[in-house]
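Repro:
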Amino acid sequence: MKTLGLILACVFTSFVTFGQESETVSITVSINNISNNNGKVIVALHTADTFMKGPGTQNLESTITDGQVSFTFKNVAPGSYAIMALHDENENNRMDFEDNGMPLENYGTSGNDMSMGPPSFELSKFEVTNEDLDLNIKF
């Protein structure tokens, strides 16, 4: 009887562990219109609490090949997110600005909103459920 209990406990634990692993997804982000191969592209996965306030919940970077990059955020839990991307041409790990406050380097967000002014979480957000996502960001 103890053996049967141990076997059932192991089976139950494996189901719970398997179920927890499937609660996260991957988000693949592609950017295909980068103006040149200089520097790198930095992307950050944000929640409403981190958007425009510093690093995201996950941060990735890549060199550029033929004006394109691709990233995959892994183990993302369900919820509302936004992605910000920056073409960091001089590799100083921050966005550079003109004296008048206009960005010197290209950037984009998951909502591909190109309106004037800083990006907003509301226009950039998307929902993560239980399926992997593929997103394309435009600069």
